[in-house]
């Protein structure tokens, strides 16, 4: 028998989570330490669904799903978002695969019964290869719930056995860039997972990010005090459990690139990257990811790495592996609802505006000059 409790992040305990994370498809953004930080910083209004196997003695946690309650605009119905906070990049619930077919219907039923929860869920960056995904779609179909698939896409992904490019033009360029960078001084990679080292290295990352193009555009984390406070606390809370670190690529002791990492089970997540633009010609971000991938797999504890990145990012050039992802809008209750229609229209509108923006950017981008025709004898 599966029971579901709905609670605040403060009541989601670490020990049952750790036990579940060893058995389930991972999602570091569902880590109770991260959820508590988002809630305590006022960064998100989070509700946590906990599924329990009541047949075990003592009962055992077999599913956890954190949802963010959000009002996107005045007069519009509230919705649930399965990315539990901004800067989360995976919305999949963490479910014991042996119980996926029971847990997902129980989650949906619990949401439907709770009068305080909206009945429309937006699920961005949902892992379509996790057992919970098929169970979710089956449960929605079985109860007549509304579903709108917004898009399918592939995320760069690497594993020990597949996905890392070991030859080709990309590998050749990486070797050349590494050799050229090594000529500038002593190059080293550091990835200290202690809480103090991670917090100190995160400050280096923030400085590198603020000094680059994101700082100029006003989108670096330090450009918004609330974002900076939350992310500092997020990394500190995860690092205190050994679930976050910041890898640094240094030349003669100076950091020229930083990669923020998160961990869940046997998976690592490359969350944020920053680099010193003065060293841009050496591709320091790509070199750091390349060497870090090699190091993580060599250490043995990590079996897969999620890029948390779009399919046309620079990581797609480093890794050939891909993970299938889906964006959905779903209605939990049976039949059509006004809330679902509003959220579906909003998401489709956002997608069209983003497509128009990309077209305008492509049109406005400088075009290469046409090659000059060779001069012909006798012409001025």
Q: What tags apply to this protein structure?
A:
single chain; 380 residues; alpha+beta; Aminopeptidase; 13-stranded mixed beta sheet; 11 helices; 13 strands; 37% helix; 27% strand; globular
Summarize the structure.
By secondary structure, this protein is α+β, with helices and mostly antiparallel strands. The protein is built from eleven helices and 13 strands.
What does this structure look like?
There is one protein chain. By secondary structure, the chain is α+β, with helices and mostly antiparallel strands. The protein has two domains: 2-153 and 324-356, Gcn5-related N-acetyltransferase (GNAT) (Aminopeptidase); 163-320, Gcn5-related N-acetyltransferase (GNAT) (Aminopeptidase), CATH 3.40.630. The chain has eleven helices and 13 strands. It has helices at 14-21, 32-40, 100-113, 131-143, 169-182, 195-210, 213-217, 225-239, 284-299, 315-318, 338-364, and strands spanning 2-7, 46-53, 60-70, 79-81, 94-95, 120-127, 145-159, 187-190, 244-251, 254-264, 267-275, 304-306, 322-334. Strands 1, 2, 3, 4, 5, 6, 7, 8, 9, 10, 11, 12 and 13 form a 13-stranded mixed beta sheet that branches. Strand 11 (267-275), helix 9 (284-299) and strand 12 form a beta-alpha-beta unit. Helix 2 (32-40) runs antiparallel to helix 8 and helix 6 runs antiparallel to helix 8. It is globular and about 65 Å long. Mean pLDDT is 93; it is low at 373-380.
